[in-house]
Structures are given as structure tokens and as C-alpha cells.
Amino acid sequence: MDTMEKIAFLGLGHMGAPMARRLLDAGHPLTVWNRTPEKAAPLVARGAVLAASPAETVRDADVVITMLADPAALDAVAGAVLPELRAGACWVEMSTVGPDVVRELAARLGESVTLVDAPVMGSTDRAEAGALGILAGGDTARVERVLAHLGTVTRTGPPGSGAALKLVVNSAVLGGIALVAESMVLARALGLDDDTARTALANSPLGGAVARAFADGVHFGTSLAVKDVGLAVEAARLPALEAVLEHYRSAAADPAVARADVARAVTHIRTSA
Which candidate in 6, 39, 166, 227 is catalytic? Predict the structure, then answer.
């Protein structure tokens, strides 16, 4: 695929903005849209075009990329852009919305537009560095060079399989973070020093979850954790994750925590137990 094909990027949140910037810096003509237009200002300063609406964003695009907050946001954008999509365009859906939503979108698109579901693993630091893990369902041939600017692609199977695997991985990670928080509660209840317990946990098989539970300089909002774990427990009977979901819901009841990284949810769990 010609690296100069026109890209429409919809959704400039904590993850979308650095991803869009990498595509712009790679030389792609880029049109962007965000519900809060002010967030597009740094990209516009670098040469991106700010569209006034989702429909305007995709009108001349060869590749459409969505990085939106939840299924409702994707549904609203899809309703606005479907009449404007160019026949032969490729839509890369990179939000975390679950496989059912992806398959519904594929059905709405029909055969004139190719859909690739490609949710990502990694936080804002990896988005900045172009080092995301991309879980791609469907035929990625047309967008391989575009996705290469964002990270490493793992092909997962048919459309919807990337979204399914993303829920599996995110649920495990978010469950591990909540378990670390509870383990720290247990350590304190047993009279152990916080640093001693944290170091021991970091050297255990839970080391990765410990690092993420206490991470700085990255962002995955607690409200997004509620959304992702909620999608998982809707898909299967998962008693442990239902308890995890209640932890994150309780933390997200505080608007400041809801907007903050999940590390703030760990603090909430430790102080409210």
C-alpha cells in the first residue's frame, strides 16, 4: 500500500493522539476528528487537517482508523460516517469494544469497505514509541505498512478475533492489578511492611502486574477498566472477574479516580478495604 494514502483518524484521547502523530510524522496526509476539537490542536500545528464532523473526516479517506472510548461512541461515529465512506476504503477499528460490536460493524459495512479489527496492547508510553502490540483480526494486507508505524502486528484470525483476544488479555491484566492491590491489603493486615511485601510480589510470578499496579507516566483510565471488565463478564460466567469489576466500579465512583490511571484504583482498593 502506498504510504501516502489519505488517513482519517477519529478519536484523539490518551492513546489516539500519539498514534495519529506517528502516522502524520511518517508522511501520511491525515484528517482528524475528536469530540473535543481542542485536543487536535497539536496535530493541526504539525500539518493535520481538523474536520468538523466524523462524516467530513472520512469523506476522501483511503484508510479510516477509529480509537474511541466504548461501543456507544463507535456506534455513533459509524452511524455518521457510513454514508460517506469511499468504496474500497479500509476501516481499522482499534478501540476496545468486544467481538460482537466488531461483527455488527462488519455487517453494517457490507462488502464495499474492508474491516480490520486491531485493538492494541500497551499504554501511552508504547503508543508514543510506536511499540504497541496490535491484535489484528481480518485481512491486514492493505494496512500492514500503516500499522507498522504503530507497533507489531499479531494476526489473530477472522474479524472479531482481535477484539476477543484483547478482552482476554485485558481481563487478565486488570484482574492481576486488582489482586496485587488485595495482596497489599493482606500484607498490611498481617503486619508486614509495604515495601517488603511489594518487593516480594515484584519478584513473584505476579511481577508484571505489580509493575503496572504502581506504574508512573502511563495512562489507562479506571473508567476504561470498568468498561473492559464489564464486556468480559457479559461474555462468560467469570466470578473472580465479577469481583474485580466491583473493585473498579467502586473506585470509578470518584470522578477523579475514574479519569486517572488504574494505579489510582489500586490506591482506592488499598485504602477502602
Answer: 166
Judge whether 166 counts as a catalytic residue: yes
In the three-class reduction of DSSP (H, G, I as helix; E, B as strand; rest coil), residue 133 is classed as strand
Residue 153 CA to residue 180 CA, distance in Å, equals: 29
Question: Coil, strand or helix: which one is 66?
Answer: strand
The region, left, alpha or beta by phi > 0 then psi within -120 to 50, assigned to residue 88 is left
What are the pLDDT digits (tens) for 153-189?
A: 999 999 999 999 999 999 999 999 999 999 999 999 9
Q: List own/partner pairs for 18-23 with CB under 8 A and 24 or more apart.
A: 18/124, 18/127, 18/128, 19/65, 19/67, 19/94, 19/127, 19/132, 19/150, 20/48, 20/65, 21/46, 22/127, 22/130, 22/149, 22/150, 23/65, 23/146, 23/149, 23/150
DSSP helix, strand, coil percent of the chain (3-state; round to 5): 55, 15, 30
Using CA atoms, how far apart are residues 185 and 213, in angstroms rounded to an integer?
Answer: 13
Strand partners, 7: 30, 63
Percent of the chain past pLDDT 70, that is, above it, reads 99
Cα separation, 154 vs 152, in Å, equals: 7
Nearest residue to 258 (alpha-carbon basis) of 266, 272, 269, 248: 248
What is the pTM for the complete model shown? 0.92
Q: How far apart are CA 175 and CA 166, in angstroms?
A: 14
Q: Which residues contact 15 (CB under 8 A, 6 or more apart)?
A: 67, 120, 123, 124, 127
What is the per-residue pLDDT across 31-40, written as a single tens digit (0 to 9) for each?
999 999 999 9
CB 136 within 8 A of CB 147: yes
